[in-house]
Design a protein that fits this description.
The chain is an alpha+beta fold. The protein is built from two helices and three strands.
Length: 65
């Protein structure tokens, strides 16, 4: 298992700008909670799933099998 940044540098730049503006909280959701702090709870659960391969909600990270 490997987690890497999206290969699209423009997506990475935009999401990182959004994270910075929101104090590290997901720029793709309105809620601010520990569950939406990057790496969000949703993606941490996806990482734990051995069958999951794909991007996090914001498309910043990609989990490979």
């Amino acid at each position: 298992m490997k987690v890497r940044l999206n290969e699209d540098t423009e997506v990475v730049r935009m999401v990182k700008e959004g994270l910075e503006a929101r104090g590290g909280y997901c720029p793709c959701v309105r809620e601010i909670s520990e569950d939406t702090k990057c790496m969000c709870k949703e993606f941490r659960e996806q990482i734990a799933d051995p069958d999951f391969e794909g991007y996090c909600h914001c498309m910043l990270y990609y989990k490979e099998k």
